[in-house]
Amino acid sequence: MIDDPYLAMAAGAQALRRRVERQALGLGGALGVAAEPYPHQLATVRRILGDTRVRHLIADEVGLGKTVEALMILNALRLQDPLHSAVIVAPDRLIDQWQSECWTRCHVQATVVDDTGGSEGRVQLVRPQSLVSGAYVLDP
To answer: Which among 63, 64, 44, 58 has a CA at the least distance from the CA of 86?
Structure first.
């Protein structure tokens, strides 16, 4: 929580600006992330959102914006259905980064699924070993 009223107001204004921007370019709300997307990111997001079922693995070189693409897709899906749930599978070393990126760029609180499989929240971060051990089972 932000204690400084000015910083709280500035963060709120930025969130409102991004909320308005996400309606641009017909991407169904994908642009509401705190980032300036590159053309290759927009093309990837358009292709994924254009499919009948959104279940994709985004793989590319380091630094080309896979996280931003994923958050843009998450934003669009959440705008279409506010009750939309998502699972992000990430290795241990990236869990904290994903949690931070979800909050700072996408304004969504991502929860980390522990090894017992228990977690609440619409966006869940899961470690690969939880999938292998059977502690967490993805719904079809």
So the answer is: 58
pLDDT tens for residues 68-127? Answer: 999 998 988 888 888 888 889 899 999 999 999 998 888 888 989 875 555 567 899 988
Cα–Cα distance list, 76 to 10, 26, 37, 59, 79 (Å):
24, 10, 14, 20, 5
In contact, 30 and 71? CB cutoff 8 Å: no
Q: Record the tokens describing residue 75, joined without a space.
A: 């934003």
Rounded to the nearest angstrom, the gap between the alpha carbon of residue 93 and the centroid of all alpha carbons in its chain is 17
Phi-psi region of 25 (alpha: psi -120 to 50; beta: other; left: phi over 0): left
CB 79 within 8 A of CB 28: yes
- Distances, alpha carbon 54 to alpha carbons 58, 60, 96, in Å: 11, 18, 25
Q: Which long-range contacts (CB under 8 A, 24 or more apart) does 77-84 make?
A: 78/29, 78/108, 78/122, 79/22, 79/28, 79/29, 79/32, 80/28, 80/29, 83/122, 84/122
CA distance 72 to 76: 6
